[in-house]
Amino acid sequence: MYTAFDTTNKIIVMGFRGTVGNTQLSEEIGAFFLGKRKFFNVGYVFEYFFDAFMYLWNGGLSSHIRQLKYLYPDYELWVCGHSLGGALSSVAASYVVQIGLFQGEKIKLLTVGQPRTGDYDYAMWHQNTFPYSYRIVHHKDIVPHVSPQIMPDGDEMFHHRTEIWYNNNMTIGSPYHICLEADGPHCSNTQLDTSFEDHMIYYDTDIEKYGASGCPKK
């Protein structure tokens, strides 16, 4: 992940990358069935996501963000990520609110292709805490449907609001749906089939190639 700041727009940024390689992917899939961790007093999140975030937080992210907050106390915090990075973004934004570093009203959260990250209680707390929180979903992207809502242990996992669903190829000017219901039988959940290809292409851009080429401006 990375941190950044913008003195023109007065923002601090936390950005999280997605999964790299089949080994990490298999670890994530297996972790869905290994357990969840209580997230303060607001519900549960998948243990893998929490532990991955804390690894980054204790490995330098905490000192970076605290230093930037000290230097720019009035700046907004923007948090973004794709896939695994979307889940980490959700946990990260929630964590800095819980420890009192930022207020929810000063955070903008934007994720693409985010998997389900926590349970219903976590989703409800999230929607009441962050006025600006959007999950972008491309057409048949499979990852937002992982994990399943009903887990083998009977627990129910839910996305938090608000989903922005592009039921198309996401070229410039494409229409989108603002799905006010967090995780009901609407918008992307109406898809009977799913696609990994749609997970790797957002806004008509192959994310993997785009990153490898240095994120060039079009």
Automatic annotation (TrEMBL):
Domain Fungal lipase-type positions: 13-149
GO terms for biological process, alphabetical: lipid metabolic process
Alphabetical list of Pfam families matching this protein: Lipase_3
PANTHER family per record: FUNGAL LIPASE-LIKE DOMAIN-CONTAINING PROTEIN, PROTEIN CBG11750-RELATED
InterPro entries associated with the record: AB_hydrolase_fold, Fungal_lipase-type
Origin species: Caenorhabditis auriculariae
Superkingdom, taxonomy of origin: Eukaryota
Residue ranges crossing the lipid bilayer per the database entry: none
Protein name: Fungal lipase-type domain-containing protein
